[in-house]
Amino acid sequence: MARTSKKEKIGQIPVSRRFHVGIYARLSVDSTEKKNESIDTQIAIARQYLKEHPEMELYGCYTDLGKTGTNFKREGFERMMQDVRKKRIDCVIVKDLSRFGRNHIETGNYIQKIFPFMGVRFIAITDGVDTLPTKAGTDEMAVNLKNLFNEMYAKDISEKVKSSRRTSQEQGSYTGGIPPYGYYSEWVAGKKCLFVCPETSVVVKEIYEMFLAGKNMRQITRVLYEKKIHRPGIYRKTGHVYQQEGEVLEQWAAGTVKLILSNPVYMGCLVHGTTEPVVSEDMFFQTASILEKSAVKYCNRNGLSKKMPLEEDIYAGVLFCGGCGKRMARVVSTKQLSSGDRVRIYGYYCPASRRMDDLHCPANSISINVLAKLVKTALHQEFALSGICPGKLVKEFEKQAEGQKRQAMQEIARCGKQKENMKKRGSELYLKYHTGSISLEKFQQMKRENEKSVQEISKRQEALQCSLYIIDKELKEKGKFLRNLIKCNEKTELAKDVIHTLVNRIDVYTGSRVKITFTFRMNDLLVKR
Question: What's the pLDDT tens digit per position in 205-252?
């Protein structure tokens, strides 16, 4: 009797066992790929294969859309490999080898080394590849050649796409997306070109003229609104430069105006090639010089000077306008004292108060000193500091958390045992079908019910794992809350961590009135002596 080497025994899979399958599908960014290689089609082909093989049951589908096959750093693939390592999957099915990967070394490494070592069966349906040891049709050399061809194809397509784009750029073709405001694009002799739009280019030139005449961004947006000129986004939707009857007029953003003033395309300069100018080079460079000077001035004004460093914005993210609900913006100004020293003065205002359109909000503003006084008073009134036992409260929180975690972990263990029993039941069902004890119809029905139960248990496990994370997070947050609570009193200087731990939201109304929403309910957290 011939001896079997140890090498031949490694990774061999018994034929009679059931397989838990992971279907993998991938579609790259390559637009030349055939329609029949879509994600849905690949999965449908694999599902049909499963129907013809009752010894297989689907565990899950893993997909990567818009991912290249030349490397294996893909979210869907890594998730599948994680389930392989956790022994949830022992069979991987793909439509063909190119969907698995286009790097012949890495692909061959997975198919010929990693998967056999982990006891995982690999099937590429249309290529006729099946690594089950009893299958005689798998030709290792043919697999290697196909993987090499797939890698060469991927490199060839990549070079063609780059070459095509480079050629278009060298020929002066516009390779961007939406044309800049003031231009429109057309294909001429196989080349995409930019042309000056007679209507919108007049608006662009007027913006440059207003800026050079001394108007700032806010003043320019006011003039555009008063002239009822649509902002670029609305213009692209309606095709109208000026507001027509029944159309909503929206105010231009100062940032949009600044982008127009700083885009070299308007003096006829494309990154790759040239186009017809809207403004002269002299006008553009004068504008650029003013923008550069104002940027330096803005940097100095906002605290890059070592003499007057900018303080941290402790209310960022929690301060809102009570009128329109938008986040309030901080404004910084400087004041010279009688001693000659200069200090910064901070305050907050609603940005929508500066709008001229239907989104205008009545002016809401508040100084930082008034705001700090109101917040401290509210916190002091909310906390019954003399009735808090911090040490006892921390121990109580920890005790509750440990009990909740212990209960969750016990439930997770029970779910794991139930899943194992369900998987065993699936194997038993197949054996009953294989021996003729139950019909194919009965087998398929019971198999579906069993798979549904396994999925429900898996969801329960995931929810319990999530609850463990939430328990730890809440315990950490409550500990931080207690530390900040103890520190907070009327004499304490408010800090960002104190505000963001204790306060969820502050709404500011006219007349320096505020509404504070805390992140806690005192009755749920405080333990009296």
Answer: 999 999 999 988 889 998 998 999 998 988 988 889 999 988 888 888
Sequence letter at residue 205: K
| Residue of 111, 172, 167, 114 lying closest to 143 (CA atoms) | 111
Q: Are 242 and 229 in contact (CB under 8 A)?
A: yes
Overall pTM > 0.90: no
What's the longest Cα–Cα distance across the chain?
107
Q: Is 152 helix (H, G, I), strand (E, B) or coil?
A: helix
**Neighbour tally for 385: CB within 10 Å:** 13
The residues, ordered by sequence, that sit 6+ positions from 6 with a Cβ below 8 Å of its Cβ are none
The count of other CB atoms within 10 Å of the CB of residue 353 is 18
Read off the tokens for 378.
């509210």
Q: Are 353 and 363 in contact (CB under 8 A)?
A: yes
According to the 3-state scheme, what is the secondary structure of 265-298?
HHHCECCCCECCCCCCHHHHHHHHHHHHHHHHHH
Beta strands at 91-94 and 121-124: parallel, antiparallel or unpaired: parallel
- Report the mean per-residue pLDDT for the chain: 76
Dihedral sign for Cα atoms in the order 24, 27, 32, 34: positive
Percent helix / strand / coil, the chain, rounded to 5: 50, 15, 35
For the chain, report the end-to-end CA distance as a whole number of angstroms: 84
pLDDT of residue 172: 53
Give the residue among 505, 527, 57 at the shortest CA–CA distance from 317: 505
Q: What is the pLDDT of residue 80?
A: 93
CA distance 291 to 304: 18
pLDDT digits (tens, 9 = 90+) for 410-442: 998 998 888 888 888 888 888 888 888 888 888
pLDDT digits 0-9 by tens, 450-469: 888 888 888 888 888 888 87
